[in-house]
Sequence to fold (672 residues):
Amino acid sequence: MSEIQKRPIEQYLDVASISEAGTSERYQRASSPHTVFTWWARRPFSTAADLISASLDPTKAAEESKVLDPFVGGATFPLAGTRLGVKMYGMENNELAYFTAKALLDFSRSAGRQLRHLLMLEGREVLDQLKSETGELYPARDTDNIICYFWSRSATCTSCSNEMPLQKRPWLSKKAGKQRAIVQQPDFDNKSFDIHVVESTSDAVTDHSVWSGRNSLRCLFCGQEYDRKQTADLIRTASADKLAAVAKLDKRKHFLPVTDPHKYITDAVAERMIKEDCAALGLQLPDVKIPAWSGITNPTVYGHDTITSLFTERQLAVTTRLCRILSERQKTWEEKYGEPQAKAIAAFLSGLIDQLADWNSRLCMWISQNEQVGRGLSGPGMPMLWDFVEIDPLLRGPANLYGKLERIAAGVDQIPMPADQEERITRGDSRSMAYPDAFFDAIVTDPPYYDNLYYSILADCIYSFKRMALIGNFPEIFSEPRTDSTRELTAAPRRQGSPTEAWTYFSTGMAQVLREARRVIKRDGVITVCYAHSSISGWSSLIAAYVRAGLKITQLWPMTIERTHRPRSMKSAAINTSLVLIARPHEAASAMGLTQDAPSTDALIKTALDRAAAADWPDDVAATLAFVSAVEARLSQITDEMLSRQDTVNAACREVADQIYESIPGFSFSSR
Fold:
């Protein structure tokens, strides 16, 4: 018998139960450390805990095991492992993610279990002060209790100088018996538009749209037409936000049309407050450019090409005032609680900045089905909205900060706080790890999914404001005005030059990470990676990296844990499935007898399909399992130099895919 024994995850994983628990967790509104700060593509804690536990040597106590997550992100795996008693270590490149992980895993311990109480106590004072000092910004706050403001973009026709409303989403409510919509009615005599809030018993309202196509316009008054390019030029140079309606909260919401915007807006006050707060902080508003990537950062096409341009003046004024209050209260907190606890309070209350950036910008959509606000920074890029909702974040309406504070405090209460004070989160590039050889019992991670999400672009929208509040407390983290995207391990053709160069960048980078993982793992350790993609390039780049790193995939497991429209079981369709890849260094796999007499591609495909059939897994799962198994074997026969070429690797992958299509004709990868 080999001296290296299989880990539990290589023998059995109850994927159905893990998938059910993970999906259920995503739909719960219960307290969770995920509610404290904003980050993207985070796994459920239950899933992370199950993967870590199954990756460990069952003969050793959890506290004797050391596990690394080389892509910390939102810190799900380190938190889940710490809760199990495991010594978790993590690395992270992105400044915002690093701060998040440090706060959750290191700063929290300086305050201990009283942190929740301190956050509620000091947080309410912060919000009460913020509410008092922003009253001028909301003239109708106290008199009318206006909780939401509904804006539509409006352009000016270059031919007749008349208004062209760009409204596309008129619905305010689609609740049964309460259907309400904004209608901008053209007045052809006066060459203007009258705004009405109307009731409707159907799913349609009268359309007076100036949109003549998806990206083209036609003036309703003079008939002037604008093609796609002319439309973009017009909106960049001759357009503005138009306040169309508001929501008033009594016992329920009432939607009112806006005939006099000055009743609800005071732009001069916002400008004055921003200048005062920037002067007090000794900083300017973030002058951070957004990459002009059409199809990904769509606001840049229409002139919103900086972080601050994604927010109205009033939204910026509220955020900068919050930053100022948090910065100025630091000295008071130090006098009351001491420096370590004061820094912890500041770090966690900065989660309120995350919430403002995410839920109160020009990117936030009104969800008429349940009369709520949608996140603006949900990813993978940024949408261009012609209709957006602005909230008063200090009233008890959707996404208000008092409610967010309660969720932050409840999430903090779920953070594991081990007795030891060792700091185990490192800022750095996992392509070069500062750990000794054979240090970890396991590596368990959730890496970037090729081109699925551009973290740094989204992170800058929060980081740049957080920096205004925290640079005095954490200068080593917030020294730069934006996060460093040059170290981000994602396939971004616009950043790397072309799709081929992006593929090579990601695959080579992942190979470097996996080589380092191979170096720092113990001889009997495993490397567990959770990954998902719908394209051949997304998978081929990763599998080639495994082969180049000298790793052997010893087991594959499917899981359905992504959030969808509704919870679905393991028998759901394709795009919702992730794979867990378990690998070992080739020398360890050889010692276990896992690399002898490698089966043919046909045999590997048949084995995977038979396994999926026996487990009653759907065709898409079967096809993906077969694809990864067969492609790994196929690429193992190619030289390292050829493995760095996308055309060679993808050609081999397509041949394998064609073989699988013969058995499962309904399955295919996306073309990208």
In short: The first strand starts at residue 66 and ends at 69.
